[in-house]
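FORM 12-B: Structure-to-Sequence Request
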């Protein structure tokens, strides 16, 4: 629940940005910080910096449905 790995996209380590994730119930935007940049596989590890209760509920529902 703490973040995600965005494969194929490299961002500047330490930078703050936002990502929008499309869920079956609609899109949600999250504030994230780039914690790790990887070359193999190429991508960026992102940590959520602020989760509101509705965002956390959607993430938990999505994770438990897997």
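FORM 12-B RESPONSE
SEQUENCE OUT:
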């Amino acid at each position: 629940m703490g973040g995600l790995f965005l494969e194929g996209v490299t961002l500047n380590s330490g930078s703050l940005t936002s990502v929008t994730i499309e869920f079956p119930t609609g899109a949600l935007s999250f504030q994230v910080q780039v914690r790790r940049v990887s070359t193999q596989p190429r991508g960026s590890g992102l940590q959520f910096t602020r989760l509101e209760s509705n965002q956390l509920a959607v993430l938990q529902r999505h994770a438990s449905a897997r």
